[in-house]
Amino acid sequence: MSDTITKRLGPLFWLAVGWLAIVSLLALFAPWLPIKDPDSYFLVRGERPPYSPSGTHWFGTDQDARDMFARIIYGARVSLVIGFVAIAFGMVVGGTAGIVAGYLRGRTDKVVSFIFIVFLSFPSLVLAILITALLDRGLVTIALTLGVLAVAPVGRLARATTLAYADREFVTAARAIGAGDRRIIVRELLPNVVIPMGALALLGMAVAIVAEGGLAFLGLSVEKGPTWGKLILIGAGSRELEKSPWIAFGPIIVLFLTVLALNYAGDRIRSYYDVREIGL
Amino acid sequence: MSGLQTDGRVEQGRLLTVENLSTTFATERGPVRAVDQVSLSLDRGQALGIVGESGSGKTVLSRSIMGLLPSTARREGSIRFGDHELLGSGAVDMSKLWGREMSMVFQNPMVSLNPVMRIGEQIAEPLRIHLGMSRRDARATAVRLLRDVRIPEPERRVDQYPHELSGGMRQRVMIAIALACGPTLLFADEPTTALDVTVQAQILDLIAEQREERNMSVVLVTHDLGVVAGHTDVIAVMYGGRLVEVAPTAVLFADMRMPYTEALLQSIPRLDHPSHTRLTAIPGRPPDLLDPPRGCAFAPRCAFARDRCREEAPTLTPADNPEHRFACWYPVGSAEYLETRERIASGLTIGGRS
């Protein structure tokens, strides 16, 4: 036992990060990995699909005899990209607007805050349905739709955090050595605001992944190929679910674990960096 | 305006002239005049102490001169820095002076450094902004500056973060940042208040030593007359936003005229007092600047105040020594003052037996 208290992210955090890394790597390198083709039908003569999990089909097959494991990994390619692009868009647009508004205050702040409020008061699902119904249902459209929805919540956090830091003495101290507005925003405020934003990004990614599932239930998710939302929809809507639960539970468990890992990791990062504030 | 660093720099003589400077804050309850008609001047290489209680306006005064005020503040009067007027139309761009010609050491080093930036980078910032140094040169200069402010192992410290340094070390880093571009005027706003008593003297000595070495002017803001005693040439005592007594340090301590200055001095605990001596406190609190008293601002708390003090505000007038100015109707040593003191000593107050 040692007396020194060291801050730790903890083994569960690394477990969560490990899970996210495995899922991401599998998704990234799926075409080059020795997994089955997600769109092939592995029909066995004399037996009716869905086939239960086995050595050949780790997660079983769906009712069309397609390999669930491969479909989940290919689904991850879509779901993770949607989650990442959506939150990245929200961070860049909302984060920039929020930091600038929080630093400059005055009229800029009023205008930006009003836009955020308008976005927040608009029912997000309706907006998503509207955009996907009016435009196409491609990967980029859906990812950016969710990204637009992420702008206001991310921007509000960025603005609030910036407000808290902009009054701190070190910002005045930076002004007192002649640093300009841009330098103060980029060098003094951004590094401090990025930490809570990073934690929110992980949580936001989880929300976006779940939101994709919601869109899939309305039949408005990405048209081509499997996504986690679509896999769950197909599995849960099937008459075979009672006898062969793996057709829905495979993607459900993977999605659940991924969202859990993102939330846990985000939460740990937030509290890990909060501790340092006490040391100040 | 181009670089003051080379042209138009005051090498000796008058560096700073403040005339009738008033600073007013717009608040929800009305305007608050935190600095009221202050005039003072400072020569190159001189050290000025601004002394007063919390709320006397000393911090606002120093920040008003430097121009580091929130947007709700309005300044009136004149501030001349060398040949440049800092107030009104045609005022010079302050951000070019900040860090380069005038810089500030802040009260609390625990919050004045950016927690997520290495200290080397923070020292390098003014060098890169004003002198356009390369990253490598700035880093080398940062190491040299850390050595100047007596930080051991500067090569290692330069890559550390503020939380890895003690409070005294951090204040040394703040001083290094303030000195980086070789300013002519340094503001030190209660630079030792947040520090351990044992470190306070070291920091003050460091500022004094750097002042001498660089022929720099220093404005030392503090509530502690003891702090300014050994480290300033001139002392300005503030109360309720006004200067109430200004004098060369030696003159002030030998012949203080304002009862407030005297009360401030008496409130410092002294080693040569017998143990268990009651500390002398100034009763009451500083005036409400939203609704300042009509007469002398100190009158409600002054043991020597008379009717005139409550009716009419005294102005800053020269004493026998023209460099010594004070604002008091019945100054220390006057007949009325002595009379009141006698009465207090005999256990009576104006209102009767105490």
Structure description:
The complex is a heterodimer of chains A (280) and B (354). With 280 residues, chain A is mostly helical. Chain A has a domain at 80-274: MetI-like fold (Orthogonal Bundle). Chain A is 70% helix and 0% strand. Chain A contains nine helices and no strands. The longest helix of chain A is centred in the N-terminal third of the chain and has 37 residues, at 68-104. Chain A is elongated, with a radius of gyration of 23 Å. Residues 275-280 of chain A have low confidence and may be disordered. Chain B has 354 residues and is an alpha/beta fold. Chain B has a domain at 113-175. In chain B, the strands form three sheets. An eight-stranded mixed beta sheet of chain B has the order 6-7-8-3-9-10-12-11. A four-stranded antiparallel beta sheet of chain B has the order 2-1-4-5. In chain B, a hairpin with a 2-residue loop joins strand 13 (348-349) and strand 14 (352-353). In chain B, helix 4 runs parallel beside helix 7 (167-179) and helix 7 (167-179) runs parallel beside helix 8. Chain B is globular and about 70 Å long. At the A-B interface, helix 6 and helix 7 of A face helix 2, helix 3, helix 4 and helix 7 of B.
Topology:
The complex is a heterodimer of chains A (280) and B (354).
Chain A: H1 11-28, H2 68-104, H3 106-121, H4 124-134, H5 139-166, H6 169-176, H7 181-217, H8 228-236, H9 246-278
Helix pairs in contact in A: 1-2, 1-9, 2-3, 2-5, 2-7, 2-8, 3-5, 4-5, 5-7, 6-7, 7-8, 7-9, 8-9
Chain B: E1 14-27, E2 30-43, E3 47-51, H1 58-66, E4 73-81, E5 84-85, H2 94-97, E6 102-105, H3 109-112, H4 119-130, H5 135-148, H6 154-157, H7 167-179, E7 185-189, H8 197-214, E8 217-222, H9 225-229, E9 234-239, E10 242-248, H10 249-254, H11 259-266, H12 307-311, E11 317-318, E12 325-326, H13 335-345, E13 348-349, E14 352-353
Parallel strand pairs in B: 3-8, 3-9, 6-7, 7-8
Antiparallel strand pairs in B: 1-2, 1-4, 4-5, 9-10, 10-12, 11-12, 13-14
Helix pairs in contact in B: 4-5, 4-7, 5-7, 7-8
